[in-house]
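Lab manual, section 2.4: Encoding a predicted structure.

Procedure: take the sequence of the chain (315 residues), apply the prediction step described in section 2.3, and record the output as structure tokens. A sample record is shown.
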Amino acid sequence: MACLQASSIYGPMYYLPWQTKHYKLICYLFLAICLTSQPVSSKRSSLREITDGNWEDILSGEWMIEFFAPWCPACQQLQPVWNEFADWGEDMGVNIAKVDVTEQPGLSGRFIITSLPTIYHCKDGVFRKYQGARTKDDFLSFIDEQKWQAIEPVSSWFGPSSILMNSMSALFKLSMFIRRCHNYLTEQLGIPVWGSYVIFGLATLFSGLALGLILVFIADFVFPSRRFSSSDYYQKKQSMELARLIQQQEEEHEADAEEDDDEEEEEEDGEQEEVWRRRRRGSPEGRPERPEGQGFSDEALRKRVVGNREEEEDT
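Recorded output:
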């Protein structure tokens, strides 16, 4: 009885080692199945990419943004450092981003990127250009010690959300579109370079003419001329034309009358000159005839002619 009781009491203790091995084997198998069935997830990069579609996200919160180009050697040297700095962004509460200016020309014009790489700091829509050293420790101290407060922010006139910068963005996008069209014409269609320039010149000319006509039509429609809209405009126009014709006729009559007077004066002057010329030559018409039976010498006749001339001049 004691043995039976002992066996009944310690029986489970006798089978414990076998049950423990079996349990461990099951746990190992279950863990192996879980590890093999679940895919290995890679660490998500904290470096964000800004495009023309999501650039307004940087207007809220704190950001550090790098503008780069893949062909730029300085950008290639900075890229590993920037990636390491991006790993610290989440811990420091700052968003780290990058912009490829070759793919986003609108953002290049919006921020007026003149050198590469260019780094901007943004805090709640206020932009400052980073001018310090480009190492991970310098970036971290710039954010941690808030050194960006000592930098003068970009003026609101030149902010990326201003009207001026929106226009600059549109111009940069247009220039990139023209460049792609030029490459397509020269590389794909085989048109020479000068032919592409001629095509763009004609397109610019005709587009300018069309835009000018559209603006003129809009201006006439929005701000019509008052003189054309008045009811008595054409009556006033006819009366003004009639008055101008009458004045022109009067001026012509006056000119004709002056010409007639001039002609009469010229005729009278011509007759007087002819008379004086004949008198000087001593013609019979210019001197009195010598009566018969009276003989005058040449000297007496000359004195008489001179005396008659002086009397005529006095009268």
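Check your result against the sample. Residues 1-19, 35-43, 283-296 have pLDDT under 50 and may be disordered.
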